[in-house]
Amino acid sequence: MSDPTESGALRARASALRTLAGRLDHSLLTELVRAGGDDTWRGPTAAAFQSDARRAERQCDDAAALLRAAARSLEAQAEAASRRQ
Amino acid sequence: VSYLGYDPGRVLALRRRLGALHDEANALRFGDPLAHDAAVAYRGAVTLMTGWLPVLALIDACGFASPYRPIAIDPADPRQLDVLHPADAAWRTVTDPHAALPVSSADHARHVAEFLAAIDITAVVNDDARRADVVGVLNVVLGDGDERNVFFLSLGAEAFSRISEDLAHLVAGRRTSAEATKRADQAAALLAALARAFGAAFTQGALDQGRWRDVLANETEPYATALVLRSATLAPDALAGIALTAWRRWNARPLDDIDERAATPEQTPALLVEALRVEPLAAPGFLAELDDDGLALLFGPDLDQDRVGQLLLASADPRVGVPDGAEASVVNVLRFLAAHQAFAGAVRDALGAYVGPYLENLLGDCDLSGYPARRWELHGADPVALLAWIPRSETAAAALEAYLDAIVTARFRALAAAGTFDGPTLHHLGAIAGAVDRLVGDAHVLAAEHQNEVWMGIGATAAGLISTAAITTLDVAGLAASKVISLSVDAGVAWVLGRWRAAGGPGAPVPVGDAVAAEGDTVEQRRGRREAAYLAALFAVGRSTGAIPESAAPPAFDPSEPYLVTRNRWLSAAGPADAAARQELWQAADDFDAGMSAGLNRFPGPNACPAER
Q: Which of B121, B258, B295, B362 has a beta carbon 3.0–4.6 Å from B336's, enabling a disulfide?
C-alpha cells in the first residue's frame, strides 16, 4: 500500500533503488572473472578478457554503490519531510 | 606467434553467460533520475563484456579467415608451456592474435616445472629438435637462482625422482647400439644439468631437505640416485647419508635394479664411490656406517679397486678434517679388512698410507702419559690384529715407515719446543715407534735397506720444509710402485711435518738431512741415527732459550757402535758446567729408547683408554 505523503514517496523511491542495487550485487558481471579464469582458457586473449571482466566487475560494484548512496539521500529527505509534517 | 589454449566446453559456457548478461541488462530498469549515473556505469560494463561475444564465436568457429586458427596440440612442445599445460589433455589450441602478455619469471619457472613433470622425458631425449628446445628452456630457468628454486619447489621431489629414473633408464642403455649410446650421453647430460641445479637449490636451503633426502635415498632407483649424486655437489652429510642408503638398497637384492638388468658397465656402487671420492668430507661418514655386506661390496671384485683405494686415501687425508673425524671410518674399515683379508688384496698397497697419519691414535698405549694424540676407541679390537697384516705389502710397509718417521720427527721437535719433555710422553712416543718397527719387521717384506731409503726420503722432505718450505717427492722403494699412493704419502708426510713445525714455537734447526740413514745401515743403526737427531733437536731448542750450555752438545751417531754406548760415554765425560744439561738430554733419549724397546717387545693391548678420553 503506497504512502500518500511526501515522505512516503521518497521512502518508496529509496527502497526501489536499494532493490536495484541488490540485483547488481548478483549480476552476471560478478561471475565473469571466475568463469573466464585459467580453468577455461590461457593465452593473450584470455588475459585480455580477464582484464576487461575485472574492470566490468568494478563498474558494476560502483553502480550498486551509487544506487545505495542515492537511496540514503532520499531516506534523509524523507526523514526531514516527516519532521515537517 | 601467440597461442590460446582453451577448454571448448567452458568457453561455450562463457559465451552463454555473456548472452544471459545481455538479457539481464535488458530486464533491469533504471527509471529513477537518481539512478542515472549507476545506469551509465552498469550499461558500460555490460557493453564492454558483451563485446566479447563475437570474439568467443570466432575462437571456436574454425573459420579459414579466423585469426584463431587451430593448431595441433602437443603437450610436449616447450614453446606452449606458458599457455597450454600438458595435463589439459582435452583442450584445444589456436593461434592468438592478441600480443603475448609478459609472463613473470616465477610463473614461467613454475610452468616449466609443470611441463617437465607431465611429459615423457624419454620422448624429449629421442627427438633432437624437441630436446634442443627443452635444454634451451632449462638453461634459462636453471641459470637463475630464484627461477631455479621456484622450478624445483614446483616440480617436487617425487617428479624429480621420476624424471631422474626415466633418464637413468636411457643412460643404462649405453653401448647397446650406436643410437642408444648417443641417447644415453644426451640423457646423462640432461640429468647432470638437472642434478647440478638441484644440488645448488638443496644446498641453499630452498627445498624441504628432509623430504628430498628421503625421496632420493629411499624412493628413487639407486642407479638414478647415484647419477644425481655424481653431479649434485651436495653437502658432505647429505651426500654421505643418501649414498649410504642407496648403497644398501642396491646391495639388498641381486639383479633388481636398472643398471643390473641392463648390465651397465658403470653401475651404482662405482658411481657412488666416484661421488664420495671427490668429496673427502663425506667419505668418512659413509665408510663409518657401512656394515659387513656393504664393505664386502666395496672391496669386492665388481668395483675398480684402484678407485676404492683412492676413496680410502681421500677419506683419511690428514689435511682434511681432524683425526677424530677419521676415527670411526678407519676403525670400521680396518676391522672388516683384518677379519676378511682376502678382500684387501687389491687395496693393501694403499693401506699403509691410509692408516699412516693415525699410527699414534691406533697404536698409542694406555699408559696415562698425557700424550697429545688420543688413543681411538677400537671397540675391543686388538690394534696389532688390525694392523699387523698391512705391512706384508712392501708399499704399505714403506708408507707406514714414512709416516712413522714423520710423526716421530715432528712430534719430538714440537715436544722439545713446547718444553713438555717429560719421560712418560717420550716413552709413549718411543713405544709407538717400536710397535710400528716391529709390525714392519715381522712382516718380513721391507728389507733394512728399503727402510733406510724411506728414512732418507723423509729426511730430504723434512730438510726441504725447514730450509725452503719446498716439498720433495718421496720417490723411494715401494712407494714408487704407485703414483697415487706416493703422492698421498708425500702430501700427508709434508703436512704432518709442517703441522708440527707450525706448532713448534721457535722451531728447531734440526740437521735432519745429516741424520738420515746411510744405505748400508741396519735397522739398529738407523735407530741410533734417529736418537742422535732427536737429541740434536732437543739441544737446539735448549740453546735457543739459553737453558743448555754449548758444551752439552750431544754426540753424533757413530755407525761403528750402538748409540747407547756413544751417549753413555758422552754423559760420563760431563763437567760441572754441563752435567745437569747432559743428564737431561741423556734421560730424554733414554726415555724414548726405553719406549721403543718396549714397543718392539710388547705390543699395545686392545683395551680402550677411558681415563685419557
A: B295
